Amino acid sequence: MRYADSAERRTFGKVECVKSVFAFLFNYLILLLLVALFIWMNTLAIEGESFTNYVKEHYNVVIYLLASIFILCLTIYFYYIFEDKSMLAFTRNIWLIFVMLDICLLTCYLFGYFFNVYSRPVALLALLALLLLSRRDAIFLNSIFAVMMFSIDSFTNFSEINAYPIALSATPLMAFSAGMVGIFVGSQVKTRIRSFLSGFAVSIPIVAMIACLEYSRGGAVVYLMLFGLEAGVLSSVLFMAFLPVFEVLFNCITDYRLRELTDHDAPLMRELKERAMGTFNHSIVVAHLAEACAIALGEDAALARAAAYYHDVGKLRQPEYFTENQTGYNPHNELSPELSVDIIRAHAKDGYELILNRRLPKALADVAVQHHGTMPIKYFYAKALKMTDGALNIEDFSYGGPKPQTKIAAIIMIADASEAISRTLPDRSPEKVEGAVRDIIEERMDLDQFDECDITMKDLAVIKSTIVSCLTGVYHSRVQYPKLKLKRTEEENTKENA
Questions:
Q1: Model-level pTM?
Q2: Tell me: the pLDDT tens digits for 123-138?
Q3: Angle (CA) 209 210 216, round 5°
Q4: Cis-peptide into 205, omega within 30 deg
Q5: Is residue 407 part of a domain?
Q6: Nearest-CA neighbor of 28 among 61, 70, 65, 59?
Q7: In the chain, how long is the greatest CA-to-CA distance?
Q8: Domain identity same for 314 and 437
Q9: How many CB atoms lie within 10 A of CB 237?
Q10: What is the C-alpha to C-alpha distance for residues 365 and 348, in angstroms, rounded to an integer?
Q11: Which of 72, 181, 280, 337 sits between 20 and 30 A of 397, alpha carbons compared?
Protein backbone atom coordinates (compact mmCIF):
# COMPACT_ATOMS: atom_id res chain seq x y z
CA MET A 1 0.00 0.00 0.00
CA ARG A 2 2.40 2.56 -1.23
CA TYR A 3 3.24 4.46 -4.37
CA ALA A 4 6.13 4.06 -6.71
CA ASP A 5 8.67 6.39 -5.16
CA SER A 6 7.96 5.76 -1.48
CA ALA A 7 11.65 5.27 -0.78
CA GLU A 8 12.48 8.69 -2.19
CA ARG A 9 11.50 12.04 -0.73
CA ARG A 10 12.16 14.73 -3.29
CA THR A 11 11.79 18.37 -2.32
CA PHE A 12 8.72 19.99 -3.86
CA GLY A 13 10.28 23.15 -5.29
CA LYS A 14 9.32 25.55 -8.06
CA VAL A 15 10.45 23.22 -10.84
CA GLU A 16 8.47 20.30 -9.43
CA CYS A 17 5.46 22.58 -8.92
CA VAL A 18 5.45 23.70 -12.56
CA LYS A 19 5.86 20.11 -13.79
CA SER A 20 3.00 18.92 -11.59
CA VAL A 21 0.69 21.68 -12.83
CA PHE A 22 1.38 20.81 -16.46
CA ALA A 23 0.88 17.10 -15.70
CA PHE A 24 -2.51 17.86 -14.14
CA LEU A 25 -3.59 20.07 -17.05
CA PHE A 26 -2.56 17.43 -19.58
CA ASN A 27 -4.47 14.73 -17.75
CA TYR A 28 -7.46 17.05 -17.46
CA LEU A 29 -7.47 17.29 -21.26
CA ILE A 30 -7.42 13.48 -21.45
CA LEU A 31 -10.48 13.41 -19.18
CA LEU A 32 -12.21 15.84 -21.51
CA LEU A 33 -11.49 13.54 -24.45
CA LEU A 34 -13.05 10.69 -22.49
CA VAL A 35 -16.15 12.79 -21.82
CA ALA A 36 -16.36 13.66 -25.52
CA LEU A 37 -16.13 9.93 -26.31
CA PHE A 38 -18.97 9.17 -23.90
CA ILE A 39 -21.20 11.87 -25.43
CA TRP A 40 -20.44 10.67 -28.95
CA MET A 41 -21.23 7.03 -28.11
CA ASN A 42 -24.49 8.09 -26.49
CA THR A 43 -25.55 10.03 -29.57
CA LEU A 44 -25.14 6.85 -31.62
CA ALA A 45 -27.90 5.26 -29.55
CA ILE A 46 -30.29 8.20 -30.07
CA GLU A 47 -32.01 8.28 -33.43
CA GLY A 48 -31.46 11.52 -35.33
CA GLU A 49 -28.92 12.84 -32.82
CA SER A 50 -25.34 13.83 -33.55
CA PHE A 51 -22.40 14.89 -31.44
CA THR A 52 -22.21 18.44 -32.82
CA ASN A 53 -25.97 19.02 -32.53
CA TYR A 54 -25.98 17.82 -28.93
CA VAL A 55 -23.10 20.13 -27.98
CA LYS A 56 -24.78 23.11 -29.70
CA GLU A 57 -28.15 22.48 -28.07
CA HIS A 58 -26.76 21.70 -24.62
CA TYR A 59 -23.62 23.83 -24.58
CA ASN A 60 -24.44 25.20 -21.11
CA VAL A 61 -24.68 21.65 -19.72
CA VAL A 62 -21.42 20.67 -21.40
CA ILE A 63 -19.65 23.74 -19.99
CA TYR A 64 -20.96 22.89 -16.53
CA LEU A 65 -19.64 19.32 -16.92
CA LEU A 66 -16.19 20.51 -18.00
CA ALA A 67 -16.08 22.97 -15.09
CA SER A 68 -17.11 20.32 -12.56
CA ILE A 69 -14.39 17.93 -13.76
CA PHE A 70 -11.83 20.77 -13.59
CA ILE A 71 -12.86 21.54 -10.00
CA LEU A 72 -12.52 17.88 -9.06
CA CYS A 73 -9.03 17.72 -10.61
CA LEU A 74 -8.12 20.90 -8.74
CA THR A 75 -9.38 19.30 -5.53
CA ILE A 76 -7.05 16.34 -6.08
CA TYR A 77 -4.12 18.71 -6.63
CA PHE A 78 -4.72 20.74 -3.49
CA TYR A 79 -5.30 17.59 -1.46
CA TYR A 80 -1.74 16.48 -2.19
CA ILE A 81 -0.39 20.02 -1.80
CA PHE A 82 -1.56 20.06 1.81
CA GLU A 83 -1.25 16.35 2.65
CA ASP A 84 1.76 14.98 0.74
CA LYS A 85 3.74 17.30 -1.51
CA SER A 86 6.32 14.62 -2.17
CA MET A 87 3.65 12.76 -4.14
CA LEU A 88 3.48 15.66 -6.61
CA ALA A 89 7.26 15.90 -6.85
CA PHE A 90 7.24 12.88 -9.16
CA THR A 91 5.16 13.25 -12.31
CA ARG A 92 5.01 9.45 -12.52
CA ASN A 93 2.83 9.45 -9.41
CA ILE A 94 0.46 12.00 -10.98
CA TRP A 95 0.15 9.82 -14.06
CA LEU A 96 -0.54 6.84 -11.83
CA ILE A 97 -3.51 8.63 -10.23
CA PHE A 98 -5.04 9.78 -13.50
CA VAL A 99 -4.46 6.56 -15.42
CA MET A 100 -6.33 4.75 -12.65
CA LEU A 101 -9.10 7.34 -12.85
CA ASP A 102 -9.31 7.17 -16.66
CA ILE A 103 -9.39 3.37 -16.80
CA CYS A 104 -12.03 3.12 -14.08
CA LEU A 105 -14.27 5.75 -15.69
CA LEU A 106 -13.97 4.09 -19.09
CA THR A 107 -14.61 0.61 -17.67
CA CYS A 108 -17.68 1.72 -15.73
CA TYR A 109 -19.08 3.55 -18.73
CA LEU A 110 -18.62 0.60 -21.11
CA PHE A 111 -20.32 -1.84 -18.75
CA GLY A 112 -23.17 0.59 -18.20
CA TYR A 113 -23.50 1.21 -21.94
CA PHE A 114 -23.36 -2.38 -23.21
CA PHE A 115 -24.86 -4.29 -20.28
CA ASN A 116 -26.67 -2.56 -17.43
CA VAL A 117 -26.16 0.57 -15.37
CA TYR A 118 -26.14 -1.56 -12.21
CA SER A 119 -23.37 -3.81 -13.56
CA ARG A 120 -20.70 -1.10 -13.40
CA PRO A 121 -17.61 -2.03 -11.27
CA VAL A 122 -17.85 1.14 -9.17
CA ALA A 123 -15.44 -0.11 -6.46
CA LEU A 124 -12.56 -0.69 -8.89
CA LEU A 125 -10.80 2.63 -8.27
CA ALA A 126 -10.99 2.24 -4.50
CA LEU A 127 -9.37 -1.21 -4.63
CA LEU A 128 -6.58 -0.09 -6.96
CA ALA A 129 -5.84 3.04 -4.94
CA LEU A 130 -5.76 1.01 -1.73
CA LEU A 131 -2.97 -1.23 -2.99
CA LEU A 132 -1.06 1.26 -5.16
CA LEU A 133 -1.30 4.33 -2.90
CA SER A 134 -2.58 4.19 0.68
CA ARG A 135 -5.85 3.76 2.53
CA ARG A 136 -6.18 7.48 3.16
CA ASP A 137 -5.62 8.28 -0.52
CA ALA A 138 -8.05 5.52 -1.50
CA ILE A 139 -10.82 7.03 0.64
CA PHE A 140 -10.25 10.48 -0.85
CA LEU A 141 -10.02 9.32 -4.47
CA ASN A 142 -13.06 7.09 -4.04
CA SER A 143 -15.06 10.18 -3.02
CA ILE A 144 -13.77 12.12 -6.04
CA PHE A 145 -14.60 9.21 -8.32
CA ALA A 146 -18.17 8.96 -6.99
CA VAL A 147 -18.80 12.66 -7.63
CA MET A 148 -17.18 12.51 -11.06
CA MET A 149 -19.34 9.53 -12.03
CA PHE A 150 -22.42 11.47 -10.94
CA SER A 151 -21.38 14.51 -13.00
CA ILE A 152 -20.81 12.40 -16.12
CA ASP A 153 -24.09 10.54 -15.66
CA SER A 154 -26.09 13.70 -15.03
CA PHE A 155 -24.61 16.14 -17.51
CA THR A 156 -24.14 13.97 -20.56
CA ASN A 157 -26.89 12.40 -22.66
CA PHE A 158 -26.38 9.07 -20.87
CA SER A 159 -29.70 9.47 -19.07
CA GLU A 160 -31.52 9.53 -22.41
CA ILE A 161 -30.42 6.00 -23.32
CA ASN A 162 -30.59 4.48 -19.85
CA ALA A 163 -33.62 2.44 -18.88
CA TYR A 164 -33.12 2.98 -15.16
CA PRO A 165 -32.98 6.76 -14.62
CA ILE A 166 -33.40 6.43 -10.85
CA ALA A 167 -30.06 4.64 -10.72
CA LEU A 168 -28.25 7.75 -11.95
CA SER A 169 -29.32 9.83 -8.98
CA ALA A 170 -28.02 7.11 -6.67
CA THR A 171 -24.64 6.84 -8.44
CA PRO A 172 -22.57 8.84 -5.92
CA LEU A 173 -23.89 6.96 -2.88
CA MET A 174 -23.61 3.58 -4.62
CA ALA A 175 -20.05 4.19 -5.81
CA PHE A 176 -18.97 5.69 -2.49
CA SER A 177 -20.45 2.99 -0.28
CA ALA A 178 -19.18 0.11 -2.44
CA GLY A 179 -15.73 1.69 -2.59
CA MET A 180 -15.60 2.19 1.18
CA VAL A 181 -16.53 -1.44 1.81
CA GLY A 182 -13.82 -2.45 -0.67
CA ILE A 183 -11.25 -0.30 1.14
CA PHE A 184 -11.93 -1.60 4.64
CA VAL A 185 -12.35 -5.21 3.56
CA GLY A 186 -9.42 -5.08 1.15
CA SER A 187 -7.05 -3.66 3.78
CA GLN A 188 -7.37 -6.97 5.66
CA VAL A 189 -6.84 -9.13 2.58
CA LYS A 190 -3.39 -10.63 2.01
CA THR A 191 -3.97 -13.13 -0.82
CA ARG A 192 -5.40 -12.90 -4.33
CA ILE A 193 -8.08 -15.52 -3.68
CA ARG A 194 -9.36 -13.52 -0.73
CA SER A 195 -9.34 -10.43 -2.94
CA PHE A 196 -11.70 -12.24 -5.26
CA LEU A 197 -13.97 -13.25 -2.37
CA SER A 198 -13.99 -9.66 -1.10
CA GLY A 199 -15.99 -8.80 -4.22
CA PHE A 200 -19.03 -10.41 -2.62
CA ALA A 201 -18.69 -8.04 0.34
CA VAL A 202 -18.39 -5.09 -2.04
CA SER A 203 -21.64 -6.10 -3.75
CA ILE A 204 -23.66 -5.96 -0.49
CA PRO A 205 -24.36 -2.17 -0.50
CA ILE A 206 -24.98 -2.25 -4.27
CA VAL A 207 -27.53 -5.07 -4.01
CA ALA A 208 -29.20 -3.44 -1.00
CA MET A 209 -29.58 -0.12 -2.82
CA ILE A 210 -30.96 -1.82 -5.94
CA ALA A 211 -33.57 -3.56 -3.79
CA CYS A 212 -34.60 -0.20 -2.29
CA LEU A 213 -34.60 1.71 -5.57
CA GLU A 214 -36.27 -0.83 -7.83
CA TYR A 215 -38.68 -2.69 -5.49
CA SER A 216 -41.65 -1.40 -7.51
CA ARG A 217 -40.59 -3.53 -10.49
CA GLY A 218 -41.66 -6.68 -8.67
CA GLY A 219 -39.89 -9.88 -9.71
CA ALA A 220 -37.63 -7.97 -12.12
CA VAL A 221 -35.76 -6.57 -9.14
CA VAL A 222 -34.09 -9.99 -8.64
CA TYR A 223 -32.67 -9.71 -12.16
CA LEU A 224 -31.24 -6.28 -11.33
CA MET A 225 -29.85 -7.49 -8.01
CA LEU A 226 -27.87 -10.13 -9.90
CA PHE A 227 -26.29 -7.29 -11.88
CA GLY A 228 -25.40 -5.66 -8.55
CA LEU A 229 -23.76 -8.88 -7.37
CA GLU A 230 -21.84 -9.02 -10.64
CA ALA A 231 -20.68 -5.41 -10.13
CA GLY A 232 -19.03 -6.25 -6.82
CA VAL A 233 -17.38 -9.45 -8.03
CA LEU A 234 -16.32 -7.76 -11.27
CA SER A 235 -14.66 -4.97 -9.28
CA SER A 236 -12.40 -7.48 -7.55
CA VAL A 237 -11.74 -9.49 -10.74
CA LEU A 238 -10.76 -6.42 -12.74
CA PHE A 239 -8.71 -5.19 -9.80
CA MET A 240 -6.63 -8.38 -9.88
CA ALA A 241 -6.31 -8.11 -13.67
CA PHE A 242 -5.20 -4.47 -13.70
CA LEU A 243 -2.97 -4.57 -10.62
CA PRO A 244 0.01 -6.41 -12.23
CA VAL A 245 -0.14 -3.99 -15.16
CA PHE A 246 0.16 -0.99 -12.83
CA GLU A 247 2.90 -2.73 -10.83
CA VAL A 248 5.01 -3.12 -13.96
CA LEU A 249 4.20 0.17 -15.72
CA PHE A 250 4.75 2.37 -12.67
CA ASN A 251 7.14 0.07 -10.78
CA CYS A 252 4.82 0.11 -7.80
CA ILE A 253 5.27 -1.82 -4.60
CA THR A 254 2.37 -3.86 -3.30
CA ASP A 255 2.17 -6.62 -0.71
CA TYR A 256 1.27 -9.06 -3.49
CA ARG A 257 4.36 -8.16 -5.49
CA LEU A 258 6.61 -8.32 -2.44
CA ARG A 259 5.39 -11.84 -1.67
CA GLU A 260 6.12 -12.90 -5.24
CA LEU A 261 9.61 -11.36 -5.07
CA THR A 262 10.43 -13.21 -1.83
CA ASP A 263 9.40 -16.55 -3.25
CA HIS A 264 12.49 -18.77 -3.48
CA ASP A 265 11.64 -19.44 -7.12
CA ALA A 266 11.79 -15.73 -8.04
CA PRO A 267 14.48 -15.31 -10.74
CA LEU A 268 17.08 -13.46 -8.63
CA MET A 269 16.43 -15.62 -5.57
CA ARG A 270 16.83 -18.80 -7.60
CA GLU A 271 20.06 -17.45 -9.09
CA LEU A 272 21.35 -16.51 -5.64
CA LYS A 273 20.48 -19.95 -4.29
CA GLU A 274 22.29 -21.71 -7.14
CA ARG A 275 25.44 -19.54 -7.32
CA ALA A 276 25.84 -18.20 -3.79
CA MET A 277 24.16 -20.54 -1.31
CA GLY A 278 25.99 -19.01 1.65
CA THR A 279 24.74 -15.52 0.78
CA PHE A 280 21.25 -16.89 0.21
CA ASN A 281 21.13 -18.50 3.66
CA HIS A 282 22.55 -15.33 5.22
CA SER A 283 19.83 -13.27 3.52
CA ILE A 284 17.09 -15.59 4.82
CA VAL A 285 18.20 -15.07 8.41
CA VAL A 286 18.62 -11.31 7.91
CA ALA A 287 15.08 -11.20 6.47
CA HIS A 288 13.79 -12.94 9.60
CA LEU A 289 15.53 -10.38 11.81
CA ALA A 290 14.45 -7.38 9.70
CA GLU A 291 10.83 -8.50 9.57
CA ALA A 292 10.70 -8.93 13.36
CA CYS A 293 12.25 -5.49 13.90
CA ALA A 294 9.85 -3.84 11.43
CA ILE A 295 6.87 -5.37 13.22
CA ALA A 296 8.20 -4.18 16.58
CA LEU A 297 8.63 -0.62 15.23
CA GLY A 298 5.37 -0.52 13.28
CA GLU A 299 7.17 -0.33 9.93
CA ASP A 300 6.29 -2.15 6.71
CA ALA A 301 7.22 -5.73 7.55
CA ALA A 302 6.67 -7.04 4.01
CA LEU A 303 8.98 -4.38 2.55
CA ALA A 304 11.63 -5.02 5.22
CA ARG A 305 11.55 -8.74 4.50
CA ALA A 306 11.86 -8.26 0.74
CA ALA A 307 14.63 -5.67 1.08
CA ALA A 308 16.59 -8.08 3.29
CA TYR A 309 16.21 -10.86 0.71
CA TYR A 310 17.78 -8.65 -1.95
CA HIS A 311 20.27 -6.59 0.06
CA ASP A 312 23.25 -8.74 -0.97
CA VAL A 313 22.31 -9.74 -4.53
CA GLY A 314 25.28 -7.70 -5.75
CA LYS A 315 27.50 -10.57 -4.55
CA LEU A 316 26.27 -12.55 -7.56
CA ARG A 317 28.87 -10.74 -9.65
CA GLN A 318 31.78 -12.45 -7.81
CA PRO A 319 30.32 -14.77 -5.15
CA GLU A 320 33.58 -16.64 -4.52
CA TYR A 321 35.15 -13.54 -2.97
CA PHE A 322 32.77 -13.54 -0.02
CA THR A 323 33.47 -15.70 3.03
CA GLU A 324 30.05 -17.32 3.32
CA ASN A 325 30.41 -18.79 -0.19
CA GLN A 326 33.96 -20.11 0.20
CA THR A 327 34.74 -23.76 0.82
CA GLY A 328 38.36 -23.51 1.92
CA TYR A 329 40.19 -21.53 -0.76
CA ASN A 330 40.20 -17.77 -0.22
CA PRO A 331 41.14 -15.79 -3.38
CA HIS A 332 41.83 -12.69 -1.27
CA ASN A 333 45.05 -14.33 -0.11
CA GLU A 334 46.48 -13.63 -3.55
CA LEU A 335 45.24 -10.03 -3.78
CA SER A 336 46.37 -6.75 -2.29
CA PRO A 337 44.14 -5.25 0.42
CA GLU A 338 43.25 -2.35 -1.88
CA LEU A 339 42.01 -4.67 -4.62
CA SER A 340 40.11 -6.81 -2.12
CA VAL A 341 38.36 -3.72 -0.78
CA ASP A 342 37.32 -2.69 -4.29
CA ILE A 343 35.75 -6.12 -4.86
CA ILE A 344 33.97 -6.24 -1.48
CA ARG A 345 32.48 -2.74 -1.50
CA ALA A 346 31.40 -3.04 -5.13
CA HIS A 347 28.65 -5.48 -4.17
CA ALA A 348 26.50 -2.66 -2.77
CA LYS A 349 26.53 -0.71 -6.03
CA ASP A 350 26.31 -3.91 -8.10
CA GLY A 351 23.20 -4.92 -6.18
CA TYR A 352 21.64 -1.51 -6.81
CA GLU A 353 22.25 -1.75 -10.56
CA LEU A 354 21.18 -5.38 -10.80
CA ILE A 355 17.84 -4.73 -9.07
CA LEU A 356 17.07 -1.75 -11.30
CA ASN A 357 18.12 -3.61 -14.45
CA ARG A 358 15.66 -6.39 -13.54
CA ARG A 359 12.94 -3.70 -13.17
CA LEU A 360 12.39 -4.50 -9.52
CA PRO A 361 11.16 -1.83 -7.06
CA LYS A 362 13.62 0.97 -6.46
CA ALA A 363 13.02 0.71 -2.72
CA LEU A 364 14.86 -2.63 -2.79
CA ALA A 365 17.73 -1.14 -4.79
CA ASP A 366 18.04 1.74 -2.31
CA VAL A 367 18.46 -0.65 0.61
CA ALA A 368 21.03 -2.69 -1.33
CA VAL A 369 23.27 0.35 -1.83
CA GLN A 370 22.64 1.85 1.63
CA HIS A 371 22.91 -1.13 3.98
CA HIS A 372 26.66 -0.63 4.58
CA GLY A 373 26.52 3.17 4.57
CA THR A 374 30.05 4.55 4.73
CA MET A 375 31.34 1.90 7.14
CA PRO A 376 35.04 0.94 6.92
CA ILE A 377 35.95 -2.58 5.82
CA LYS A 378 38.04 -3.19 8.92
CA TYR A 379 39.57 -6.55 8.00
CA PHE A 380 41.36 -5.28 4.90
CA TYR A 381 42.15 -1.92 6.51
CA ALA A 382 43.94 -3.76 9.32
CA LYS A 383 45.67 -5.99 6.75
CA ALA A 384 46.87 -2.94 4.82
CA LEU A 385 48.18 -1.31 8.01
CA LYS A 386 50.37 -4.34 8.64
CA MET A 387 51.82 -4.07 5.13
CA THR A 388 52.80 -0.39 5.27
CA ASP A 389 54.66 1.93 7.57
CA GLY A 390 52.86 5.05 6.39
CA ALA A 391 49.47 6.46 7.19
CA LEU A 392 46.44 5.21 5.31
CA ASN A 393 43.26 7.07 4.46
CA ILE A 394 40.47 5.02 5.99
CA GLU A 395 38.01 6.37 3.42
CA ASP A 396 39.90 4.38 0.79
CA PHE A 397 38.88 1.28 2.73
CA SER A 398 35.26 2.25 3.34
CA TYR A 399 31.97 1.76 1.51
CA GLY A 400 30.90 4.61 -0.73
CA GLY A 401 27.44 5.13 0.79
CA PRO A 402 24.96 6.66 0.88
CA LYS A 403 24.07 6.18 4.52
CA PRO A 404 20.66 4.64 5.36
CA GLN A 405 17.86 6.99 4.34
CA THR A 406 14.98 5.07 5.94
CA LYS A 407 14.32 3.10 9.12
CA ILE A 408 14.11 -0.10 7.09
CA ALA A 409 17.57 0.50 5.60
CA ALA A 410 18.92 1.15 9.11
CA ILE A 411 17.26 -2.03 10.41
CA ILE A 412 18.86 -4.11 7.67
CA MET A 413 22.26 -2.49 8.28
CA ILE A 414 22.13 -3.63 11.92
CA ALA A 415 20.55 -7.03 11.16
CA ASP A 416 23.13 -7.77 8.45
CA ALA A 417 26.10 -7.10 10.72
CA SER A 418 24.46 -8.83 13.70
CA GLU A 419 23.81 -12.04 11.79
CA ALA A 420 27.37 -12.08 10.45
CA ILE A 421 29.03 -11.52 13.82
CA SER A 422 26.76 -14.04 15.59
CA ARG A 423 28.29 -16.80 13.46
CA THR A 424 31.74 -15.99 14.86
CA LEU A 425 30.73 -16.15 18.52
CA PRO A 426 31.93 -19.31 20.27
CA ASP A 427 29.42 -18.61 23.05
CA ARG A 428 25.95 -17.65 21.76
CA SER A 429 24.34 -17.04 25.10
CA PRO A 430 21.88 -14.13 25.27
CA GLU A 431 24.43 -12.04 27.17
CA LYS A 432 27.17 -12.52 24.56
CA VAL A 433 24.78 -11.91 21.66
CA GLU A 434 23.42 -8.78 23.33
CA GLY A 435 26.92 -7.45 23.86
CA ALA A 436 27.84 -8.06 20.21
CA VAL A 437 24.67 -6.39 18.88
CA ARG A 438 25.12 -3.46 21.26
CA ASP A 439 28.68 -2.96 20.00
CA ILE A 440 27.45 -3.00 16.39
CA ILE A 441 24.84 -0.32 17.06
CA GLU A 442 27.21 1.87 19.09
CA GLU A 443 29.91 1.64 16.43
CA ARG A 444 27.50 2.82 13.74
CA MET A 445 26.25 5.61 15.96
CA ASP A 446 29.83 6.75 16.58
CA LEU A 447 30.42 6.79 12.82
CA ASP A 448 27.21 8.80 12.21
CA GLN A 449 25.59 6.12 10.06
CA PHE A 450 22.05 6.98 11.23
CA ASP A 451 22.26 10.75 10.73
CA GLU A 452 20.24 10.74 7.50
CA CYS A 453 17.26 8.66 8.62
CA ASP A 454 14.57 9.31 11.21
CA ILE A 455 15.52 6.50 13.59
CA THR A 456 15.52 7.27 17.34
CA MET A 457 17.35 5.94 20.37
CA LYS A 458 14.16 4.21 21.42
CA ASP A 459 13.95 2.54 18.00
CA LEU A 460 17.55 1.34 18.32
CA ALA A 461 16.81 -0.14 21.76
CA VAL A 462 13.81 -2.02 20.32
CA ILE A 463 15.92 -3.25 17.39
CA LYS A 464 18.63 -4.50 19.74
CA SER A 465 16.27 -6.46 21.98
CA THR A 466 14.40 -7.90 18.98
CA ILE A 467 17.55 -9.07 17.20
CA VAL A 468 18.97 -10.59 20.39
CA SER A 469 15.74 -12.50 20.97
CA CYS A 470 15.64 -13.75 17.37
CA LEU A 471 19.32 -14.73 17.17
CA THR A 472 19.26 -16.67 20.43
CA GLY A 473 16.26 -18.52 19.01
CA VAL A 474 17.94 -19.22 15.68
CA TYR A 475 21.25 -20.36 17.16
CA HIS A 476 19.87 -22.05 20.28
CA SER A 477 21.81 -24.78 21.99
CA ARG A 478 20.74 -28.41 21.72
CA VAL A 479 21.17 -31.38 24.03
CA GLN A 480 24.10 -33.47 22.86
CA TYR A 481 22.90 -36.82 21.62
CA PRO A 482 24.57 -39.94 23.14
CA LYS A 483 26.86 -41.87 20.80
CA LEU A 484 25.05 -45.20 20.80
CA LYS A 485 25.08 -47.67 17.93
CA LEU A 486 21.80 -49.57 17.95
CA LYS A 487 21.47 -53.03 16.40
CA ARG A 488 18.41 -54.91 15.29
CA THR A 489 17.31 -57.81 17.51
CA GLU A 490 17.46 -61.40 16.33
CA GLU A 491 13.67 -61.57 16.50
CA GLU A 492 13.29 -58.59 14.08
CA ASN A 493 15.75 -60.15 11.63
CA THR A 494 13.81 -63.44 11.72
CA LYS A 495 10.52 -61.67 10.97
CA GLU A 496 12.04 -59.80 8.03
CA ASN A 497 13.55 -62.98 6.53
CA ALA A 498 10.24 -64.78 6.90
A1: 0.81
A2: 999 999 998 998 999 9
A3: 115
A4: no
A5: yes
A6: 70
A7: 105
A8: yes
A9: 16
A10: 9
A11: 280
